[in-house]
Every structure is written in C-alpha cells, then in structure tokens.
C-alpha cells in the first residue's frame, strides 16, 4: 500500500481533525487492501467511518456500546488473517477494555489495530469520564503493543498506513480537535520507533507527541524571539521509544517532554526511564497533566487550565531551564 497525499488533502484533513482524517485514510487503504476491516463501538460518525461503512458495508462492523467485545471480536477477525481497525474513545480502549487488550493483543499478539479516539481533553464538555489522559500509561506496560501518536492530520493518515503495514498489535492514539494545526505541510517519512527531528537547537530539546508537537513548535518560536534556540522532536512512536535519537541529545542540558497525558506513565516517564540508565546526560522536565481531575470545559480552555499552550510551555522552559 502507498497512500497518495496531495496539498488539497492536507488542507481538508486539517479542518476535519485527526478522527475524520483517520476515516478517510482507512477508506483509501481499504480500496487497495481487501483484508482491512473496520469495527467500532457505536462510534461510526465520531470515528470518521461513515463513508467507509457506505463504501464497504460488508467490511464494517458496529458491535454497539460494548468495548470489551469490540476487542474480542477484532482479535477473532485478526486470527483469520484480516487486518481489523477497532475504534472507540481512548479511555474506554485503555481502561474498560484493558484485560482484553492484554490477553488478545499482548499475550496472543493478534494483529489488531486499536484506535483511541479523542485522547487527552478532546472530548471537552463530556468531562473526566471521557478524557483519555491515562491511556499511554496503561497500554505502555502491555508487552508487544506498539503505540503510535500522530502530531497532525497528515501524520494521522501516514501513521494509519504504518499501522496497517505493521505485523502486530498497534494502539493508534488520536489527539486534538477539528481545525487542527498543521505540523507536516507535505508527506514526511514515518518509521516506527524512529522520531522525527523537526528543528535543531542547543542546550534544550523539546520532545513532544501528538497534539503537543504543534504546541512545542509554538513554544520554540516564542523562545527564539528571546534568543533561545531549542530543538523540537516529534516522538510519534511512544513504544518502542526511539532511544537512539534521545542519545543524540545527551550532551544537552535539558530534555523537556510535552504530552496531552498524565505526567505519570506517559512520554515523560518513558524518557526518564531511559535517562535513569545513562551515566551522564540531560535533566528531564515533564510537562503534561497533573494528578488531579478538574472541571470540564471546551478543549482550548482545558489546555489553558493545564498549561498546555505555547505560551505556558515556553514560560515553564524559560523559568526552569534558563535560570
């Protein structure tokens, strides 16, 4: 499979956001690969799969609001050599279905692609019950499960193709809302387990994932206006972690991780775990969601409240890394 992406696609997809882009990309991939099937827990429209379900009704399965069954049915299909993409909200995939993910994807290594929709605060006013802010921490501990986290709509389309081509279980974590910032203005190279260095710098490197890559680039721009030039890394694969790229920045003073996820168990923890085995190297500053469940609000308000905007991140880097 080879996914053709035009400038018009990138403009349209950025308006749709990652969920709509995922559905469009999967439909294109399904046209080339008859083994691809799509499943959802009553979230066809939210998953961007409405067009897929119309184009391929015999390859689309709605199991209803039954997320544990979703994973079990997808695993059964995978055992019969199909490539199932199973979609539900990220917190339901990681928490409600954790046992099924562990047994079928971890233990049995079935070739299921679980798509975690609306990770982070993307569900806005739905509140804490629908926020996916512990999914990386939960799923990173499951053996043999790759975790992909696209930075924007372009990356979502390309990493959907990467997931389809990987022979093994994958968790595809979709963050952000509609009218998503564009990080990749043209198709890029996405190799599982190999981060993309978006800009070079000195002394400080920001390691970001998902929706926070655009935030990291904005923070880097703010810092550059103050004469401080930081590197920015898109860690699109959270597992396996690209420790080779991290090692290339071992002479820096700081690695700042930025994620729309709890500061416990996610990207920051993964980088800190790697750093703990190094005799020398940079300090790690984790930027993410703290240990409390606050009030619900719209998406941008939630990012503001938790310090996950370019101005908040640049200020934290300024105050901590340039004392």
Automatic annotation (TrEMBL):
Keywords: Thiamine pyrophosphate. The keyword Repressor does not apply. The keyword Aminoacyl-tRNA synthetase does not apply. Pfam families: Transket_pyr, Transketolase_C. Its cofactor is thiamine diphosphate. Residues 16-182 form the Transketolase-like pyrimidine-binding domain. Belongs to the transketolase family. This is Transketolase subunit B.
